[in-house]
Amino acid sequence: MGIVMLGSEVAKAMKEDLIQEVQILKEKGIEPHLTIIRVGARPDDVAYERNAKRRMEVVGIACDVIELEETVSQEEFEKVFCQVNQDENVHGILLFQPLPAHLDAEPVKMQVCPYKDVDCMCRENAAKVFVGEQTGHAPCTAEAVMEMIRYYGIPVSGKRVVVLGRSLVIGKPVSMLMLEQNATVTICHSKTENLEQICQEADILVAAVGRPRMVTEQMVGAGAVVVDVGINVDENGNLCGDVDFENVEAKASYISPVPKGVGSVTTSVLAKHVIQAAKLLCDEAIKG
What we know:
The protein is α/β, with parallel strands linked by helices. The protein has ten helices and eleven strands.
């Protein structure tokens, strides 16, 4: 029976450090500030927003939400984003994506200040993650995987890591973060041959494909660490991950559940990035 990696335990461990860092900044006259921009009211966006606001409040970060109508024009959307981006009191910007079909996110991705881009939507931050530059913010979910592994004391250096999924949000960035920790990384996707065999050889298996319970017990080697990043709704309307948790748990040494797993850590990572952004922007202001 594997040890269940609960995200709440990781978030709890991060909380005191975050509170302390915010307090140090406030003593210097800097109040970390996050602005969330949401177009429309998708239930998953609203739920994440609620959790993010609660986390910011707990650690002492100011947080406000700009809600735009789903029918907002491209011009108005870009105008609002530009105003937030230029606001010196705002240290972090979180834009919920995907946007409605009539809106194009590329113009704002090109203009956002990389320091304020706390969830890695711009190319500059993606490049920094790729080269291991510490001033770049990785996607919060990808870094949440690393925070969870770090908290549970799971060694990464020299280990065989298999990542299921190649998205820019999780698959690719978490692969780079693992590589930075000296893991040997294999990225798998829909065209991968001998997928089951490759997964069986993994010391650490990260599932991020968005397919309910795709990872079965036959795909997991005995004693493997299994990190489930998928969030799906099954045929009964219940939340589930990419891993068949009930059957895989018996083979894994560590396994994260869905819900209550990696997703519970992402807002803490978001807070961490806002604090980092406030420090970086302060340093830039001093240099300027």
